[in-house]
Amino acid sequence: MHDHDHDHDHARTVKPMVEEITDFEVLEIALRELCIEKGLFTAEDHRHLTEYAENIGPTAAARLVAKAWVDPQFKAAALADPIAACKQVGVDWLEPTGFGTPSDFVAFHILEDTPTVHHVIVCSLCSCYPRPILGNSPEWYRTPNYRRRIVRWPRQVLSEFGLELGEDVEVRVEDSNQKHRFMVMPLRPPGTEGWTEDQLAEIITRDCLIGVALPKAGVTSNVITRTRPANNPITGSGAPS
Asked: What residue stretches are annotated with the Nitrile hydratase alpha/Thiocyanate hydrolase gamma domain (predicted)?
């Protein structure tokens, strides 16, 4: 085989190093470059905002919930006007960055868990998420697997996260959309009586605020959630290994 033929065959058969770019990535690149070309923002502005967004975490949300646990008046105010309550923990939904970049304003709702009702959030269409107060969504939240299954078999999916709820607890799945964002206010766990807000905030993890976990004394935000393989919804058996 001639070298030319060998090179041609290699180029035709070898697999690419990375997956093909998705339609959404193409759209994002095109829209970003067009906005820069039109002078809506600069490449430096985009870099600044991206770096800012990547550094947002759930700390502010955890502090909001901890404050609500110890202050009944603040809790009532937070449930009635979540946007105003967010400001008290340093999050301004109208201008979350603090350097002149307004957000696309949405209605923000805090979902209060009770002994008989447990909430969990999802965006079944794409990946809507309360980023100004929770930061970027976890990768699993954006997967079709989570999005389609949590609305059909919520108890099964929660059990895969290690969260087993009694039959006397109603599970409500809240579906985010273009203009509505949700965050869960979980129940304060036993064994935390007399704790300070700082101590309480340590056990309110991102997964608790999404609703796939419950806060527990001694379990901090540094713990990696252990999940088990998905069950077959028909047979109840585990996925094949």
From this structure: 23-213
Which residue ranges form the domains of the chain, and what is each CATH number?
A: 23-55 (no CATH), 57-210 (3.90.330.10)
Any known ligand binding at 128?
yes
User: Is 35 annotated as belonging to a binding site?
Assistant: no
184 and 173 in contact (C-beta within 8 Å)?
no
Confidence of residue 235 (pLDDT cuts 50, 70, 90): low
Beta bridge partner(s), residue 118? 171
End-to-end CA distance of the chain: 43
CA pair distance 238, 4, nearest whole angstrom: 51
Taking each helix axis as running N to C, give the angle between helix 23-37 and helix 43-55, from 0 to 180 degrees, rounded to the nearest 10: 130
Known binding residue 127? Answer is: yes
Residues with a catalytic annotation lie at 123, 126-128
Task: Provide the whole-model pTM.
Answer: 0.75
